[in-house]
């Protein structure tokens, strides 16, 4: 009987367990459905954001505890607010639709009920049903980074300290494997001042994409806003070295007996105090490097190895205790430190406090607006007044005694409400002009000022008599400072100061070189470790540029031989000349129909068709030339009018003045008396050099426009004469109304190849219709029968 009862119990246990799990899952599913945000707000799952917002406002007014006295109103109002918080955020809404997730701190895929994912489609077990999820360590929660927090806090803070960031995710077994090493590293580096962060790929996908992290686990270093990935084995020593390598080089200078004097005397150029650390270790401690990185804009750091034999004189000079690390801070006085700290276990907090209290020199030079804001802050109503005693001087040798006397005065009259500083007039001229009313500094001047607003408004008073560093000057300045502390209205003048020039800013080429160096290092790092996801945009850009470059070269290489081959002559057309081929180089917004310019000679045969019986709206552009200037002028003429040869209403011809020497005087003589005087016609008839003149003839309306060569004053041998002639005024009205005698006399002094330099501009005015027109009663007749056809 005992055996049977045991077997019966064994068969009963699985059934009871299945019933228990079914009841539990149904109960959890019911409890999850009770907190459905869609049901609470009364909207469907396909509702838009406007419908959700409208429902939320209506329910919030109805269930607000101040208006609804129902005891359940407060709980209902909380549920309404929580539901709207989930559904108004697309990411949270998507998580709820997919996983039933309501709390943003829950991992993806883990719903409220943990047993069933959904009853929408089928009976489905989640993987968390079989084993409990890995709960995040409470100590890690304070390091969790969010996208907004990273950009507002961590990114700016990375300019003061490096950050070590771990990228992890739920159910990442490799993350569990490196967890002990990570914790040890955090315990070691965080007290030194290294920032620690953790990014969850599931929760912060946007932040992970910004960092370029696409897999877990990943370890990232962040310094000065630059992201660097850790690619070595996850060992504590490697992580420590990784953080040390993130810091800029030459943060700390090695100091010995040979260079300590130069290091301490550089305060005048660097405008910073100098700090020396004496320690027994041969290498610079990481703690000291991190402190130097945090205060690199204020203090210069040097390290002295006490074990080196080359540093014996330094140890004796400053009486250094070799049994504990010692820090000495120097300002203007390089023989005596202004502050000393010595401790066997140096802590980061102690070092930060020590350096923060000595960030500035006794009398620093104002070299930037940031330094001015820190030394002379704007007056706050809840704080005591702070006055800035400013010495305006120069860096010349004659001003050094006065500058030294001002430093001595500031050292002996240190007060919490006073800040002493000096500026060089040559470097900060706008500021000096605002305070001195544009007066040059003959002798140093002392100005006492109080800043009243961030916009630059100040109240100030100049110390009368200037500053020579005498005892009388010191007494007078001391007296005025005493009066100022008793009566704040002593500052009677006001002004608005401009922003200071940044004297320490690197030049543009240095900034560009640093940025290029960082970019090259990043590309090398990505190539070395095959981060192809990040490299794809860069590689695409490089290959696109190379394709365009080499494609252009190849096209040019194959196109040039084809252009140089002579073209076959077309039927019924004369072959092209070598001179005409040069016109193809011209470009125009209106491409011509042909790659040559057809120029016909005006003879008895072509004269009637090309001029007398020219169709309405058509214009014949005629070049006047001689036998001597024919080749040069035709070449130049074809080049200038090539861009206009695509116009169907324009025709191009040339007239040989040697053959028809009476045609031009006859044309000018028959022009309208209102536009052309008789005296000019006589002069033109006497002058026989019409080569280089261009006529635009309208045969139907019987008018013409004339272009004359004009001497531009350019050197005929100067290759830039054509360019300079085009840069002159385009107005030709004076040319068209000027006497022909003056035009002809000037044309005789112009080289043949420069006579048509302005023809292109004249053609533009012809197309615009702005040229003056000369009417003729009838066209003169030609008396020759020569006929030729020229293509250019």
Can you give the helix content as a percent range?
40-55%
The number of helical runs is 29
Give the percentage of residues in beta strands: 5-15%
- Unreliable residue runs: 1-10, 28-33, 103-135, 560-591, 676-686, 715-748, 784-792
Largest sheet: 7 strands, mixed
Query: What Rg do the Cα atoms give?
Result: 45 Å
Shape: extended
Strand order of the largest sheet: 20-19-18-16-17-15-21
Average pLDDT rating? 77
Would you tell me the structural class of the helices and strands?
alpha/beta
Count the beta strands.
Answer: 21
**Roughly how many Å apart are the termini?**
126 Å
Protein name: DnaJ homolog subfamily C member 16
Keywords: Autophagy, Glycoprotein, Membrane, Signal, Transmembrane, Transmembrane helix
InterPro entries: DnaJ_C16_autophagy_reg, DnaJ_domain, DnaJ_domain_CS, DNAJC16_TRX, J_dom_sf, Thioredoxin-like_sf, Thioredoxin_domain
Biased composition (Basic and acidic residues): 562-575
